[in-house]
Write a structure and sequence with these properties.
Number of strands: 8
Largest sheet: 2 strands, antiparallel
Structural class: mainly alpha
Strand order of the largest sheet: 1-2
Radius of gyration: 26 Å
Distance between the termini: 28 Å
Strand content: 5-15%
Helix content: 40-55%
Shape: globular
């Protein structure tokens, strides 16, 4: 049950839950009188804005449905049916079933996004997302705006990525003979780069000045991390065009923090995101993850421009642009076929780097003053109220949050002790006062909630980060009808499963020696609906090549095996692949080098080699019968067989997610 609750709230965070209280640090807005940014400029369309509808009306011409289109529509239809069942359950005064159906619908949307990453922007999918997400907000009583964009950088992007360069004029003249610093990543200068140079030095120099001021605080720490990870230090300037060095930045696509990680990518690099905390907002942890991600991308492409572009766009989108540009793996050849945002990404990075490495030449100062990013750490108990901790340190609650931007709620996360960051020089005073905090101010694993007028069980569950099911399990004889003044025991949402780290991503394995004998296995979890296969390393293999053969990321292979980029011949690597394609991937270990080279070539050409294999080998499914055991749930059964809840419902003509002990279910298991 805890796993289900944790999975539900991880999904909720992914779909846009903001922190209860955000600090005001680095959130100065740039007011720009311009038209709304067309969504086609964005990497992922925001499904919740009305502007999408008009833009999507003008999108690609209608065409007949192919097999993939029908598959997507069928799954969208199933999710709508589950959504309707949730509403019916609420009408029938059954919040437990309503929550189960709602959770199932949200999971169905997430699975669609995993299987079809390009779906955002599709009108049918956007309407589905809007409908289900609206019901989610109604069920849990969420009134404030969600997915709110935060950060000045997005206003800058709206202006600089506009199709018409109306702001360019003869009065903007760049310096002559601009010095090109010696860097590992080449800093070419062309018309695209000049456009960005002009913008940041002549059109909006105040923006660059603000970012350069912040860089004095963060860049020393960031460059040190990049050196430790073996990544060119000039790449720290990407954080400027990603977020304006704002730890609280949040994009249209729910990317968060200085390095704008979406939750899925951040989790690969160990960044913990749960009800209580979001490590994407921690400058140090996110920088470590970004350096490792960039290093992985370079390993795949062997070209820094393509690696940087892949940081901004999906691998599939980048490969598509490369094919459209003639097939050469070159950023500038693919440039015309990239989304507008990615077109501006590399020139923006080059321009920002040139300006920062030649500040005076571009009319800026070199001596901006700022306190360096530094802190002391004190271990504190779980569920300690932040206002009490701030009092103990003699600082404001806002200052405490500024030093601990990953904290989302009113208290430290439950679980193990939390490494609280404090201003340098405040630790001794804090520790002296910490022991005097009264016991009744210290949190527990559950609270007693007094029901307020108009509240439902869904409202209460959302308030404390738990589920309706968990509330039922904690209150014997609880009715779905609750009344004002009623006392209800509410279990608090779980925190991180791991011991929270102070300066590195919590879920990232410790660095180990590069020899296979000294490696420790990663605690990184296998993806859902996956099966394990083993690959024996051959002469000439690299992590990047193996990742391409199995259609996974190099970082995932390293995480699953607790390894670095150095691998040895004869070493066995564990790789997780989709269950339905396990038969194909098992054979890769036996393929010759020429066969694997052919796989790389076909995959880069856009061919789905696993689908081609399935059609030629006659892979199918078998129907098995399962007898429901005590305390079974449909979600658990579906996960154990690698199918969806909706598929089980359809196969067995179930109208709800309710099942009973001894019930026999037919399940179409994929071979």
């Amino acid at each position: 049950m805890k796993k289900q609750i944790s999975a539900l709230f991880s999904l909720i965070v992914l779909m846009g839950i903001n922190a209860d209280a955000l600090t005001a640090q680095n959130t100065t807005q740039v007011t720009i009188d311009r038209a709304t940014l067309p969504e086609s400029y964005l990497q992922i369309t925001d499904s919740l804005t009305e502007e999408n509808e008009a833009i999507e009306e003008k999108s690609a011409p209608r065409k007949s449905l192919n097999t993939i289109d029908r598959s997507v529509m069928r799954r969208i239809s199933n999710i709508y049916e589950t959504h309707v069942q949730s509403i019916r359950a609420q009408i029938n005064n059954d919040p437990l079933s309503a929550e189960e159906h709602l959770t199932s619908a949200l999971e169905g949307i997430q699975e669609l996004l995993v299987d079809y990453p390009d779906l955002p922007g599709n009108k049918r999918f956007n309407e589905l997302y809007r409908t289900v997400y609206t019901e989610y907000k109604e069920f849990y009583g969420i009134e404030k705006a969600e997915n709110q964009v935060n950060g000045e950088v997005f206003a800058v992007q709206r202006e600089i990525y506009e199709s018409e360069d109306e702001w360019l004029s003869d009065r903007y003249v760049l310096p002559e003979n601009i010095t090109k610093p010696k860097t590992e990543v080449p800093l070419v200068q062309n018309d695209h780069v000049n456009r960005h140079l002009t913008y940041y030095t002549l059109k909006r120099p105040e923006v660059m000045e603000r970012w350069m001021q912040r860089s004095k605080k963060y860049f020393p720490m960031m460059k040190q991390i990049f050196r430790e990870e073996g990544v060119p230090t000039e790449l720290v300037h990407l954080s400027m065009i990603e977020s304006g060095l704002n730890p609280m930045a949040r994009s249209w696509a729910s990317a968060v923090g200085m390095w704008q990680f979406i939750q899925a990518t951040g989790s690969v690099y160990g960044l913990e995101v749960n009800w209580w905390m979001d490590e994407r907002r921690d400058p140090e942890k996110a920088t470590r993850a970004a350096a490792q991600h960039l290093k992985d991308l370079y390993e795949i492409w062997d070209d820094w421009y393509l690696a940087i572009a892949n940081y901004n766009i999906s691998p599939r989108g980048l490969k598509r642009a490369i094919r459209a540009g003639g097939g050469e793996e070159d950023y500038w050849s693919a440039y015309a076929h990239l989304p507008r945002e990615t077109q501006g990404y590399i020139p923006g990075f080059i321009a920002t780097t040139m300006i920062n490495l030649n500040a005076e030449e571009f009319g800026f100062k070199n001596d901006y003053e700022a306190d360096l990013y530094s802190y002391d750490v004190a271990k504190v108990d779980p569920l300690m109220p932040l206002d009490e901790l701030a009092k103990a340190a003699g600082i404001s609650k806002e200052t405490l949050k500024e030093y601990n931007p990953e904290l989302l709620r009113w208290a430290t996360p439950p679980g193990s002790k939390y490494p609280l960051k404090l201003p340098v020089g405040k630790k001794e005073k804090f520790l002296a006062n910490y022991e005097d905090i009264p016991k009744d101010k210290r949190g527990r694993g559950a609270v007693v909630h007094s029901v307020q007028r108009g509240q439902t069980l869904g409202h209460i569950a959302q308030k404390y980060g738990t589920s309706v099911r968990a509330i039922y399990e904690s209150n014997d004889g609880l009715s779905s009808m609750i009344h004002p003044g009623q006392k209800i025991v509410v279990p608090l949402a779980p925190g991180s499963a791991e011991k929270i780290a102070a300066s590195t991503p919590t879920n990232k394995p410790e660095k180990t020696k590069s020899t296979s004998s000294s490696r420790t296995k990663s605690t990184s979890k296998a993806p859902s609906k996956s099966s394990k296969v083993t690959y024996k390393v051959k002469s000439g293999d690299t992590i990047g090549h193996i990742a391409e053969w199995y259609d996974v990321r190099a970082s995932q292979i390293r995480a699953w095996n607790g390894t670095s980029n150095t691998i040895t011949v004869g070493e066995r690597l564990t790789i997780y692949v989709p269950r339905g394609k396990q038969t194909y991937y098992k054979q890769v270990d036996e393929f010759s080098r020429s066969q694997k080279t052919k796989i790389e070539r076909e995959q880069r050409g856009g061919k789905d080699i696993t689908a081609a294999y399935a059609s030629s080998s006659g892979g199918g499914q078998e129907t098995v019968r399962y007898r429901v055991r005590k305390n079974d749930t449909l979600i658990e059964i579906a996960n154990s067989f690698g199918v969806s809840v909706q598929e089980i419902k359809q196969t067995n003509d179930l109208q709800s997610s309710r099942i009973y002990e001894g019930q026999k279910l037919r399940i179409n298991k994929i071979n």
